[in-house]
């Protein structure tokens, strides 16, 4: 294991796991050389596969040790573990990344091993994901007039960097068949739906109908606020790409807000969508070395 991090910080009460920024300490740990050598001597070697395990349970003693023991006992090697313990909340969050030999640790056995740990700690959520072996997530992308977030997602998907299937793209702004995005979607047979919105009609019922067969939604600079009723009706994760560094500069025109406040750097934030605008748990952030004054 190359990195272990544990933090105690205030987090909003949510049922889903999210990665959040924090200060961390590094604890060097020697790789599992013994496990790796025993694996290679006992069975034919195959390519190592990358896995991710997300865990959410009541806080207690020995959780990290048990998760690590589970992976190590099967010859796996932990790459990193992110651990979160919110202040004044008796809950524990963890996200583990590891590599393993699928010949020694078959996928169905992995599910059963993590299920036993989940039961022993009365976990609220325990999800294991092996992108190379598991079916790809099905997503829908919602966008408005500006294309840059949508184009970046589409190109990432085309290059194989995003292990998802894009079921459809929905927008409240029209894109003709001869536009760059229109040609791309047509070439890859991705359905495109134009649903113009107004103050009195956000077309949410139609959107819910179109995205029923998806695992989560991505808002790629979708300039509409989704209602609590929509989020409840959809019932799955909705991820927003916000063109600013949350929790500061929420809402519209965050670049101008940052400029007016004297901020020298700009960035972007991906976060889970909740009823409160731009207040959902943060997944990832990136700072861009670009003059704020040139962003609007």
Q: What descriptors fit this protein?
A:
296 residues; alpha/beta; Alpha-Beta Plaits; Rossmann fold; 7-stranded mixed sheet; 5-stranded mixed sheet; globular; disordered N terminus
Secondary structure blueprint with pairings:
Blueprint: E1 4-9, H1 33-42, E2 49-58, H2 63-73, E3 77-86, E4 91-100, H3 107-120, E5 125-129, E6 137-143, H4 148-158, E7 164-171, H5 180-187, E8 192-194, H6 204-210, E9 216-220, H7 228-234, E10 237-242, H8 254-260, E11 266-272, E12 282-288
Parallel strand pairs: 1-3, 6-7, 6-9, 7-8, 9-10
Antiparallel strand pairs: 2-4, 2-5, 3-4, 10-11, 11-12
| CA-based gyration radius | 21 Å
What is the CATH homology-level superfamily of the largest domain?
A: Formyl transferase, N-terminal domain
Number of helices: 8
Task: Report the end-to-end length measured between terminal Cα atoms.
Answer: 44 Å
The tally of strands reads 12
Q: What is the arithmetic mean of pLDDT?
A: 80
How does the overall form come out from the CA principal axes? globular
Helix residue percentage:
25-40%
Q: How much of the residues is beta strand, in percent?
A: 25-35%
CATH class of the largest domain: Alpha Beta
So, CATH architecture of the largest domain? 3-Layer(aba) Sandwich
SSE string, helices as H and strands as E:
EHEHEEHEEHEHEHEHEHEE
- Cross-sheet strand order for the largest sheet: 8-7-6-9-10-11-12
